[in-house]
User: Which sequence fits this backbone?
């Protein structure tokens, strides 16, 4: 038996940064329990997109906070997650897209995001790899960018070690016990418990006796060969929202990702060749230079999601010492903000990162439906949480 001020479950970007923030807030002994190795879940496999152009005020605030954190890391830690300010374009293809984008832009601008409208010819000018004449314009934020997910795992590993968090790898959380948690290496007494788990959060919740409506589903990413036209200076990041396709420059080629809206929920890391062909077809229509390019890397991994595509940050109902945190499939974009807010909530019940009161588990009904409006700027996640 051992004792800690806080136990955090899950060594992904949410749990790890949360453990770091708890330690930085002054807790003496913080233990991070990871059933495998740090970063072995979604966090090392992501595409790294970081966007302040969120679809709801909560999404915008988490994006702003996380971006600022990425920019501050080097001073704070001596290393960083590799944030690159690339600029992000969300093109519009229909009048309905334009109306929705202009409405979002007003909300984002009000919250201080330097987002601007580009007319169709300005879109073509800002993005010479995009097939000309395709769009009706779009929103653009030159401060959006991307991190390197493996480098983020390295950065939080440094942060954990430097701050004195005790990292317990290959130790599985098994459940809550009075005054602490049960793990595969025995009991840890703890005043505070934070539960994360990314695509496995529902299972972590079940171990704790909680119903958490968070799911996991396959998501695919690929990287093309290099091409001079794909020089990063010529390629802003782009989110083709209607298709759920996004891309960004990567080592002289293009990294692109897309979620199949018909994908059944559940863990899956096999590459779906048919869907990859559909991804490529859409990409080559919009970025013709990619049509003849080979692929240097392809991977499929399980991404976390929530029914309303928004994060979960809040204390477990009836268990004031237990806090639940999930980035809802946007852990690169929102992860540090979610982690800091979860640490704050664990310690005090509220956070100055954002007002977390709408984001708790109490927003979901018995069937897992949320009473919040769905974040409209998200991948096309399944409507259900599990395939059963
Ligand atoms: C292919 C892909 C591309 C993505 N691209 C982007 C992107 O561009 N931008 C973006 O914002 N987000 C992106 N995401 C989403 C992002 O990666 C996730 O939202 C984020 O990594 C979730 O972090 P996490 O810490 O909650 O979960 P994870 O990183 O999955 O970590 C959870 C950890 O909990 C551990 N765990 C589970 N059960 C237990 C237990 N019982 N005991 C102890 N430990 C346990 C797991 O082993 C795991 O290490 C992408 C995801 C994927 C898969």
Assistant:
């Amino acid at each position: 038996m051992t004792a800690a001020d806080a136990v955090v479950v899950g060594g992904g970007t949410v749990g790890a940064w949360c453990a770091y923030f708890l330690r930085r807030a002054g807790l003496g002994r913080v233990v991070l329990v990871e059933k495998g190795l740090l970063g072995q879940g979604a966090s090392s496999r992501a595409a790294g997109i970081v966007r302040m152009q969120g679809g709801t005020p909560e999404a915008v605030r988490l994006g702003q906070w996380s971006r600022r954190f990425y920019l501050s890391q080097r001073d704070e830690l001596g290393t960083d997650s590799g944030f690159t300010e690339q600029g992000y374009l969300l093109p519009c293809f229909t009048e309905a897209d334009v109306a929705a984008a202009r409405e979002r832009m007003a909300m984002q601008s009000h919250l201080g995001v330097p987002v601007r409208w580009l007319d169709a010819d300005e879109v073509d000018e800002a993005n010479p790899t995009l097939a000309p004449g395709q769009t009706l314009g779009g929103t653009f934020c030159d401060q959006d960018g991307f991190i390197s997910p493996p480098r983020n795992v390295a950065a939080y590993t440094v942060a954990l070690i430097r701050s004195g968090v005790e990292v317990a790898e290959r130790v599985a959380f098994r459940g809550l016990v009075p005054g602490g948690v049960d793990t595969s290496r025995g009991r840890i007494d703890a005043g505070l418990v934070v539960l994360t788990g990314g695509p496995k959060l529902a299972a972590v919740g079940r171990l704790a006796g909680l119903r958490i409506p968070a799911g996991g589903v396959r998501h695919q990413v690929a990287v093309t060969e290099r091409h001079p036209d794909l020089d990063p200076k010529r390629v802003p990041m782009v989110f083709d929202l209607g298709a759920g396709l996004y891309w960004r420059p990567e080592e002289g080629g293009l990294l692109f990702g897309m979620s199949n809206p018909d994908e059944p929920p559940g863990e899956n890391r096999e590459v779906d060749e048919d869907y990859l062909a559909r991804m490529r077809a859409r990409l080559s229509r919009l970025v013709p230079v990619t049509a003849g390019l080979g692929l240097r890397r392809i991977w499929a991994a399980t991404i976390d999601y929530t029914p309303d595509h928004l994060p979960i940050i809040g204390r477990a109902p009836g268990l004031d010492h237990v806090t639940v945190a999930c980035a809802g499939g946007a852990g690169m974009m929102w992860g540090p903000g979610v982690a800091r807010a979860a640490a704050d909530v664990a310690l005090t019940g509220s956070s100055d990162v954002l007002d977390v009161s709408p984001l708790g588990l109490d927003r979901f009904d018995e069937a897992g439906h949320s009473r919040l409006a769905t974040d409209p700027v998200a991948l096309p996640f399944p409507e259900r949480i599990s395939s059963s």
Remarks:
- The CA atoms of residues 64 and 112 lie 9 Å apart.
- Helices lie at 13-24, 57-77, 95-110, 120-126, 149-163, 201-207, 273-286, 335-348.
- The chain has eight helices and 19 strands.
